[in-house]
Specification:
Layout (H helix, E strand, L loop, with lengths): L22 E7 L13 H20 L3 E11 L8 E11 L3 E11 L7 E12 L11
Antiparallel strand pairs: 1-3, 2-5, 3-4, 4-5
This protein binds acetyl coenzyme *A.
Amino acid sequence: MEVLEYEATTDAESDALPAPQGELTLQIPAMPRDTNPDNDIFGGWVVSQMDLAAEITARRVAKGRVTTISIHQLNFLRPIEVGDMVSCYTNVTNIGGSSIHIDVEVWVQPPAEQVPHKVTDGTFVFVAIDANRRTRRIR
Ligand SMILES: CC(=O)SCCNC(=O)CCNC(=O)[C@H](O)C(C)(C)COP(=O)(O)OP(=O)(O)OC[C@H]1O[C@@H](n2cnc3c(N)ncnc32)[C@H](O)[C@@H]1OP(=O)(O)O
C-alpha cells in the first residue's frame, strides 16, 4: 500500500498553516465495513484509530505497557468518506510521573483531491502500568 507523507511539523508557530501537527503514526483507508446503515463513517471507528495511534506512541515513551485513562477535547470537524486515506498524527505534550498526554490529529486525503484536510482532533492520556495493571512510574 502506498504510504502518503504529508508535511508535518511540531512548530507551534506554524499552527496557522494547513499542515498536520506531530508524527505520522498510523495510516488506514476508510472501508465500507466502518460505516453505519447510511454509509457514513462511525465516529467510534475514528476514535478507535486515534486511540491505537496514541497507544503506539505512549508505549514507545513508557517503554512498555500502557492503558488509556482519559480521552478529552474530541472534535469531529469534517466527515470521512469511504475510500479516504486516514492518517493519525501524534504529538506528546506532557510526560508526568506515570502519565503521558498525547494530542492526536486525523487528516484525510480523498483520492480525487490533492490537498489533505483535518477531520478530527483530540487529547488522549495514557498511564504506564505493570504486569499486574498497577500504575508504573516512568520517571
Ligand atoms: C474501562 C475500560 O476498559 S477503558 C479501556 C482501557 N483503559 C483501562 O482499562 C484503564 C482503567 N483504569 C485503570 O486501570 C486505573 O485507573 C489506572 C491503573 C490506569 C490508574 O490508576 P489510578 O490509581 O486511578 O491512577 P493514579 O491515581 O495512580 O494516577 C496515575 C496518573 O494518571 C493521572 N490521571 C488520573 N486520572 C486522570 C484523568 N482522568 N485524566 C488525566 N490524567 C489522570 C494522574 O494524575 C497520574 O499521573 P502522574 O503519575 O503522571 O502524576
